[in-house]
Amino acid sequence: MQRPNPSDAVPVPSIPSCDRGPIPTPVTWQPGPSQPELPERMVHLWRCCLTRSLSAADQAIVAADCDRAQAYGTQRRQQFLRGRWWLRQLLSLYLPEKPADFCFQLSPTGKPELPHTDLCFNLSHSGSTLLIAIARQPVGVDVEQPRSRSWLALARRYFPTAEQEAMQQSADCDRWGLASWVCKEAWIKAQGRTLANSLRHLACSWTATGQPCLQGLGSENSSIRLLQVDPQGQQWAAIASPDELDYQMWSASIILRNH
User: How far apart are CA 95 and CA 113, in angstroms?
Assistant: First the structure.
């Protein structure tokens, strides 16, 4: 495990217990364009489906990523390779290279990067849903679905004490815990940090409109959006960047139409 950065050991401010609680913004996924324009202060969030099987041609496209996937179990390996197939397809909408030509490298924390381009990206999956964020600045995304576990028990292990206390006074601990987790993980991924070294030093509270406010680790000026991925509210997601950016959210159906 990576040693904690001394700058991570920052006291987290107290969290007010009277906040309204999380209210995710419902997303309507419009079909994305075949040639997306990506301004400097824009994030494109794409929704993809992981149930698509990889053909022999698809397998050839992700062949360069197979070595990393060998350490995974069968199901996780298939999810990883399908995610990389979608990532390569989407990046080819922005760059002149073909999907098979991209050569990824890993940051010190294991985050995939594409050298020699200003594009930044991040991906997350839950069940059959894959979200991929693409921007020209660091960006992070996380998607989760409600679990049978107690989010308060998880908070006792990973969240600051002040946030645990605020959660216990809220109307719905599990709702708070789920929303807080996705917001924190999205921001941590945008920063290229590791979860283990960061969660204890980040606290999440909620504005009067139910949107997240992070405190700790220099996150106070970050831009965080809490999203309801599907109409039934079965999946929540968060997208994060260091600065205030605009967002466009699209379905990746354009890729399937081309295959």
Answer: 14
Q: What does the pLDDT look like over 40-50, one tens digit per residue?
A: 999 999 999 99
- Cα separation, 131 vs 121, in Å, equals 10
Q: Which residues contact 73 (CB under 8 A, 6 or more apart)?
A: none
Q: Which CATH class is domain 28-141+247-257?
A: alpha beta
Place of tokens 């946030």: 163
How many CB atoms lie under 10 A from the CB of residue 230?
15
Burial 204-213 (b: 16+ CB within 10 A, else e): bbbeeeebbb
Q: Is the pLDDT of residue 18 over 90?
A: no
Pairing of strands 246-251, 42-49: parallel
For the chain, give percent helix, strand, coil, nearest 5: 35, 25, 40
Say whether domain 18-25+146-243 belongs to CATH 1.10.357.10: no
Q: What is the pLDDT of residues 113-144, one digit of tens each?
A: 999 899 999 999 999 999 999 999 999 999 99
Q: How far apart are CA 139 and CA 40, in angstroms?
A: 12
What pTM did the predictor assign?
A: 0.90
Are 119 and 134 in contact, with CB atoms under 8 Å apart? yes
What is the separation of C-alpha 192 from the centre of its chain, rounded to a whole number of angstroms? 12
